[in-house]
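Following up on my earlier message about NDP. Here are the inputs again, as you asked, copied directly from the submission form:
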Amino acid sequence: MARIIDGKAVAERLRDEVRAGAEVFAADHGRPPGLATILVGDDPASDVYVSGKQRACGAVGIEGFDHRLPATATQSEVADLIARLNDDPAVDGILLQLPVPAGLDADALTASIDPDKDVDGLTPVSAGRLALGQPGLRPCTPSGIILLLDAHDVPIEGAHAVVVGRSNLVGKPVSALLLARNATVTTCHSRTRDLAATCATADILVVAAGKAKMIGPAHVKPGAAVIDVGIHRTDDGLMGDVDFEAVEPLAGVLTPVPGGVGPMTITCLLRNTLAAARAREGVEALSGAAG
Ligand code: NDP
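Thanks, got it. Here's what our run produced:
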């Protein structure tokens, strides 16, 4: 039976480290690290996410700046706010909650965030830095996946890692992070010919396809590390892209949903905010390391 990865426990340990780091930072610089969130419109799910991020900041000693704009906000109003936050010395990280209302150009707004404050790691500059192996802020969910593998002593170097999904948010950056850690990486997508056969060669299988229970025993090599990024709200509760019960007897380690990758995402946002603050104050440059 697989060892079940306890994402909550790993996240809690890492948040303790951020709390300690934020305390030292505040003592040394006379201010806490600061994270500005921007929510445009009143989408209830986005409201829950942003409020959760603000609460998480408060719990680790990061100052949250919670900016809310009406759904009627124009492109230039949002862009002006981002420009002000780029220039604000109390703000180390800026997060534009996506999606933004129709009519706004999310890509242009994201691209206008100062890459050194891009704690979501989603600007073209951050993506370029990751692709080139340069120091920078890495996307949160992919970083969390690497940290979970490390926390459970899953060897990455030399392993065959198969990633199902190629989104800019998860699939592509996690593939890049695994490659940076010297895995041999195969990235699968909806046009991949024999998905099961490809997945079944993986030592590390990361699934971020957004299809409930699409990965079963035929996709899993015995002993593989299986990381399930998917989240689906169903009548039977939350579930992932992996058929947990069917895969559990085969996998070596396995993330549950909920309680696996999920808790790591906000944790990595907090880590990125502290790292950005330290880099901006000249304490320590941004790392080139994966995760
Ligand atoms: P996207 O919809 O942006 O991307 C899905 C990817 O999966 C695409 O590249 C798509 O291929 C591929 N795909 C879809 N169906 C198949 C299939 N049948 N076989 C092979 N590949 C397939 O999703 P995201 O990357 O944004 O998110 C993926 C999942 O992760 C979602 O369930 C989301 O809710 C969850 N998520 C969880 C987070 C967390 O914190 N735990 C954070 C972010 C996301 P193609 O490119 O060809 O269309």
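One observation from looking it over: Residues 71 and 102 are 9 Å apart (CA to CA). Hope that helps, and feel free to reply on this thread.
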